[in-house]
Amino acid sequence: MSKRAASQKNAEVAPADDGAVRRAAAILRDGGLVAVPTETVYGLAADATNDTAVARIFQAKGRPRFNPLIVHVPGAETAARHVEFDARGEALAKAFWPGALTLVLPRRAGSAVSLLCSAGLDSLAVRAPDHPVAQSLLAQSGRPLAAPSANASGRISPTRAEHVAEELGSHVDLILDGGPCRVGLESTVVSLLQARPAILRPGGIPRERIEDVIGPVADAPEPGGEDAPAAPGMLASHYAPALPLRLNATSVGPDEALLAFGPDPLAGAAETLNLSPRGDLTEAAANLFACLRALDRPGLRAIAAMPVPEIGLGRAINDRLRRAAAPRG
Fold first, then answer.
1. pLDDT at 238
2. Helix crossing, 87-96 with 207-214: angle to 10°?
3. Is this prediction's pTM over 0.85?
4. What b/e string do you get for 25-56 counting C-beta neighbours within 10 Å, with b at 16 or more?
5. What φ, ψ does residue 35 adopt, rounded to 5°?
6. Helices 313-325 and 281-295: crossing angle, nearest 10°?
């Protein structure tokens, strides 16, 4: 348990300079929780080798215990202490690490990572983040870090420090402010547990780039039920705003907010935010969660989302939108 009071009213938000990162590393070694920027979204980090610290992540997020966590490491050499790489995993790590790619691999016997991170599975999800603050924190803490998105379970992922403070401020020991996340979508999750690799979650690395390295991969599964998922972000209802979300909108009501895409947004909404007026999928991905948060406010009936092309990063954007719009249990 962290020496900081777990019942504190609000966590400190600190610019992610060297001194703040050193303090954050000490908090992690002491079993506390730190919100850390990555290139994808802000993560809620804990020492992945500390059972109690990992359990605090689940408690803070209200996360189902059967939902596995991604373990963040500096690179492939550290990851190999905890998972068993094959040639495909080595090739993907060489091509995309550090970066927005998570690999699900067989868990190595003797790994010090808490079994809570694996959620009862014989595998482990690992990634090397491409962000100087996250890499510095990994180096200074000297620990692999379990770090799911720093938001309440099932809610919109945070891409700015203030998003974390608004939602989890009373549960976090320190929030490192590294500015807006560059990618803005979670990592792509690829399982290498079977003969044909499978994308378990589309994300910041498009499928086409992965197939350029290892050949054909299986399609991402459709959002499923609440049974134990094989990787983070696979629950049917996830990334959800409080307002209902209506997909593929071709019209919008005066009591709705519009999540637009492209140069010709629909007219008539109470409020409109455009993911990318020029129709750029990279820009749209970076803006997705911040726009959903901004439109999710009282006084509106729903959020209407315009169609986004199902290509490249558009697949990951649409995956998040479908899960955000799914029926909630």
1. 66
2. 130
3. yes
4. bbbbeebbbbbbbbbbbbbbbbbbbbeebbeb
5. -85, 130
6. 20
